[in-house]
Design a protein that fits this description.
The protein is an alpha/beta fold and about 190 residues long. It has a single domain, classed as Alpha-Beta Complex (Maf protein). Helix content is about 30%, strand content about 25%. A hairpin with a 2-residue loop joins strand 3 and strand 4. The radius of gyration is 17 Å and the shape is elongated.
């Protein structure tokens, strides 16, 4: 048993949880500064942000399990956040075109007794060489908005993917296998997860 709070405004995370029979009791997004620290690696950044998001929401829901996550795209040590505008999205997709990149999702769960479980799930994604025409159509479609790295793998950009090693659901926004294990490992017994 236990109340579950999702500390995220991402509709994709809610949809992913629903796919495995988990319906959070509440959705309460954390509002934190997501600016990377100086010399902060992509891996450290997503873990810190997930933990800080969960920690920010815990005081508002005593006695609940709080789940938070953060996803970023990285090319080497370069962090690609959410594009600011069309030009930024175009730059990101051009950078990803014809090469592999990492998608890192940090997940944190805080139990009612204060125990914390957190981890980073890394997935390697390879894009085909995106043509100028494909890029124009993609940018015009607007799917790059509110998406780390300027794309959503479950939408049109899925057609750019030639290879994926790791967790598909993590690239969408939440690694389901790991999340279920973290929740049940801390004693949460809700949902229909098996």
């Amino acid at each position: 048993m236990g109340t579950l709070v999702l500390a995220s405004s991402s509709p994709r995370r809610l949809e992913l949880l629903s796919q495995v029979g988990i319906e959070p009791d509440r959705v309460d997004p954390a509002d934190i500064d997501e600016t990377p620290g100086r010399d902060e690696t992509p891996r450290r950044l997503v873990l810190r942000l997930a933990e800080e998001k969960a920690g920010a929401v815990v005081p508002r829901h005593p006695g609940a399990f709080v789940l938070a996550a953060d996803t970023i795209v990285a090319v080497g040590s370069r962090i690609l956040g959410k594009p600011e505008d069309e030009a930024d999205a175009r730059r990101m997709i051009t950078l990803l075109s014809g090469r592999a990149h990492k998608v890192l999702t940090g997940v944190a769960v805080i139990a009612p007794d204060g125990r914390v479980s957190s981890r980073v799930v890394e997935t390697r994604v390879t894009f085909k060489r995106v043509t100028a025409q494909e890029l124009d159509v993609f940018i015009a479609g607007g799917e790059w908005t509110d998406a780390s790295g300027g794309y959503k793998i479950h939408k049109r950009a899925g057609g750019f993917v030639t290879g994926l090693q790791g967790s598909y659901s993590s690239v969408v926004g939440l690694p389901l296998y790991e999340t279920i294990n973290m929740l049940t490992g801390l004693g949460w017994q809700g949902g229909n997860a098996s």
